[in-house]
């Protein structure tokens, strides 16, 4: 008989292109653990793709359904990449185990084209293989009827510059494509008269929906973008890579700082007793899979070859396994991340 699930958690998935395959591995290991139950999932960009797959799989056939959906999704991404990816790795670096494409001729051409032309010029028919992949792997009509796992997907409103959070009832191919819409690759996605770009710009991922709509007070963040780098970036590619990381971490760090401030108010007794119940004590946990990606640069986010993606998946599983061994007992009891030290 299966062991009863004892810990209810929320999952927050960062975006990061092909690096989202690490999140695939992390999620696969968490779903394998029958001591865990997932209440809600938030995701942006590649994190939204993973989040939608997990939510749909859970709705369809529980944890095994979620794992199967993730496997099928990422295999489809790899298969499509053989035909649609504008970036190809040089054969020799692949055989030597290199992870980045920064010196590949195709990547240099890709950078040149996307800096000189907009997707309205070089991609006038708005070809996006992700759309077909999502429609093949996820039945969004069925997902919208899900009552057990809440889904939050962030996209950036181009007109207002604000984050827009779509929930389970809104789930669709357009919503996920909007969350993963890099503006230098694809036309903005129009939904109900508004246009959207990648959710990572304003919420990577968003946490605040958990405060109001999730039962669990434990948020497990799966990081993909490195937060810190000790070495000063000096080359053009290193600088662009670091700018990308900082940009896609900024919104998350702001939310974590706000949570840290509320924790301090509660811990230091600055809130009157009659008002304390109005503030929710959120427990934050971080699976720092970004540490395994520290040696990768932005170019590797465009790699879709199966060997690379499955390598990242296995790394994600190992990271999640180590995290569970160290932090499982803290779930439901206290944060495993010291936010006040992080922002000291």
Automatic annotation (TrEMBL):
GO biological process: lipid catabolic process
Motif GXSXG boundaries: 43-47
Motif (DGA/G): 198-200
Residue numbers annotated as active site: 45 (nucleophile), 198 (proton acceptor)
Domain of life: Bacteria
Gene3D superfamilies linked: Cytosolic phospholipase A2 catalytic domain
Keywords: Hydrolase, Lipid degradation, Lipid metabolism
InterPro entries reported for this sequence: Acyl_Trfase/lysoPLipase, NTE, PNPLA_dom
Gene Ontology MF terms: hydrolase activity
PANTHER family for the chain: NEUROPATHY TARGET ESTERASE/SWISS CHEESE D.MELANOGASTER, SLR0060 PROTEIN
Name this polypeptide is given: Patatin-like phospholipase family protein
Source organism phylogeny: Bacteria, Pseudomonadati, Pseudomonadota, Alphaproteobacteria, Parvularculales
């Amino acid at each position: 008989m299966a062991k009863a699930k004892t810990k209810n958690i929320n999952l927050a998935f960062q975006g990061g292109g092909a690096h989202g395959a690490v999140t695939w591995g992390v999620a696969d290991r968490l779903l394998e653990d029958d001591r865990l139950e997932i209440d809600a999932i938030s995701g942006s960009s590649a994190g939204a793709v993973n989040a939608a797959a997990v939510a749909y799989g859970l709705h369809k056939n529980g944890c095994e359904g979620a794992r199967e959906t993730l496997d099928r999704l990422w295999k489809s991404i790899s298969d499509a990449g053989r035909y649609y990816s504008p970036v190809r790795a040089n054969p020799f670096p692949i055989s030597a185990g290199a992870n980045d494409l920064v010196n590949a001729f195709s990547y240099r051409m890709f950078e040149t084209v996307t800096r000189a032309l907009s997707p309205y010029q070089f991609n006038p028919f708005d070809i996006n293989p992700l759309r077909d992949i999502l429609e093949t792997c996820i039945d969004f009509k069925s997902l919208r009827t899900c009552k057990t796992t809440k889904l939050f997907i962030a996209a950036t409103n181009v007109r207002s510059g604000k984050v827009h959070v779509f929930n389970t009832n809104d789930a669709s191919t357009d919503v996920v494509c909007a969350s993963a819409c890099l503006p230098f690759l694809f036309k903005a996605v129009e939904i109900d008269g508004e246009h959207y770009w990648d959710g990572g710009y304003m919420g990577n991922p968003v946490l605040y929906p958990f405060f109001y709509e999730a039962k669990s007070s434990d948020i497990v963040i799966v990081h993909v973008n490195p937060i810190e780098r000790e070495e000063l970036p000096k080359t053009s590619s290193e600088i662009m890579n670091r700018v990308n990381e900082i940009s896609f971490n900024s919104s998350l760090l702001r939310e974590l700082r706000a949570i840290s401030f509320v924790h301090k108010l509660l811990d230091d007794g600055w809130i009157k007793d009659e008002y304390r119940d109005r503030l929710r004590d959120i427990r934050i946990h971080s699976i720092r899979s970004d540490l395994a990606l520290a040696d990768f640069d932005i170019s590797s986010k465009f790699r879709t070859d199966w060997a690379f993606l499955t390598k990242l998946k296995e790394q994600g599983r190992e990271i999640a396994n180590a995290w569970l061994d160290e932090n499982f007992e803290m779930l439901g009891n206290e944060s495993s991340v010291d936010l006040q030290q992080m922002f000291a």
